[in-house]
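Technical note accompanying the year-one report. For the benefit of new consortium partners, we illustrate the data format agreed upon in the data management plan: each record pairs a sequence with a structure-token string. No post-processing was applied to the example shown here.
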Amino acid sequence: MPENAAEPALSGLRLNLRILTVVIFNFASYLTIGLPLAVLPGYVHDVMGYSAFWAGLVISLQYFATLLSRPHAGRYADLLGPKKVVVFGLCGALLSGLSYLLAGAGSHAGMLSLALLCLGRVILGIGQSFAGTGATLWGVGVVGSMHIGRVISWNGIATYGAMALGAPLGVLCYQHAGLQGLSLTIMAVALLAILLALPRAAVKASKGKPLPFRAVLGRVWLYGMALALGSAGFGVIATFITLYYDAKGWEGAAFALTLFSVAFVGARLLFPNGINRLGGLNVAMICFVIETLGLVLVGLAVDPWMAKLGVFLAGAGFSLVFPALGVVAVKAVPQQNQGSALATYTVFMDLSLGVTGPLAGLLMAWSGVSTIYLAAAGLVAVALLLAWQLKQRPPLREA
């Protein structure tokens, strides 16, 4: 990519600003996800009169669509260039808002309105996988491959920030303007992002014969497995910390989640060059040690302060796991396959978060809520061993 020649000149504020000019499109994509997240379950259950199963299915469809479409998003980003993929993804977000608008206009039309909501969620899931993968690769193309870790980190901050902002903003829109007003807000966010993306300079798609998907999977799956194991801690904290506090008879579960988020974002902001300086696998191993310690503290906590400290450490430890391992995974394939590698690698986190909830729920029912945090600590410890083994072998380099 032509920008790569200027990589050494980029540093500090200028580098971050150039990344943010692309990351903003991922922020817009996730804002369209966050806006309806706290509204649609209640709308389906209370307004449309469907069961909790259907309310949950409407939300889950987006995650399934994202999971299934990620490999395609990476492949098309490699073939067509990341800008086109980002615009395609944002168009999906726009169409999802249109589907909600049509569903709201016919809210008494029964299954037709429900089908429109489901269609909107599927389109949104596909759009998110394309916009998210494309924005990361676009950012790398703009600032150069030596800054992959920083681009991934900023995309993560944008993701969590947009979700945190979107949920309360969506509730506010719904309270004042109903589902129609919320739908128009989603469409406006997506349309504004599209209009901002179109005039921006594209980065060229990489030339060269791409590897088949099986070959890409073969190069990145061990890094993906380490990511999946390391994501277990995040899964049990996000899903069960409220039940954990209830079982202990403590208050402050919401504050514990806030501590996790503050530690997560803070670590990414405080150590932007850590991956470049120490190497992805070294950073991942340090992170796994901190995350394991935090989860053990939560599992063994006898006072609220122990649990809060543990959650904080778990958030700080998990923060850099995705970009640290992602840097190594992406560099394990030729440049023309980096989109496929990133998307395939991300699928492991999607799968991990998808199965952690039900499996941890079964374990909790069998042996108590504290056990799931100790079990998660064990999985993260296995991820540490896997990262150590990966460090011992010669890295796969692009051909």
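Partners are asked to follow this layout when depositing records. Residues 62 and 125 are 4 Å apart (CA to CA).
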